[in-house]
Amino acid sequence: NRKFNLDVWLMLDDLRDLYQEVIFDHNRNPRNFRAMDDADRQIDGFNPLCGDRLTLFIKISDGGVISEASFQGQGCAISTASASLMTEIVKGKTEEEAEQLFTLFHKMATGEHVEMDELGKLAVLAGVCEYPARVKCATLPWHTLDALLKGSEEPVTTE
Ligand code: ZN
What we know:
alpha+beta; binds zinc ion
């Protein structure tokens, strides 16, 4: 049914526009974009493929909950928006929950099937799986967080 297909495509276009709007917004006005002097842990991440760099800072409460997350650095729109969204979503999550989100996000970004509901706002970056060169831009902040949660202090590189 041609009409139906057209409607579906129109809907997808609207969704893409919406997703792009969110990405542009987080790039223009990144959330939690600041150094944290009293961070419990911090670590650097680098994506040589694109030149994205960030330093990630977190505070962890006694119960193993990420009470604050922030970042600084310079990167493309995708890496900046991804870091901004990540610092927003992991706040209030346990380390274990954050690791689960990393796994889900990584699957989504590399084109594996995931339940989008579980990803919340992070779903706006689902489109990167269509652009292999940008996957590392989107996953850099998450690889950096993963290393930090595993207790590493070595700079992270996606290559
Ligand atoms: Zn990039």
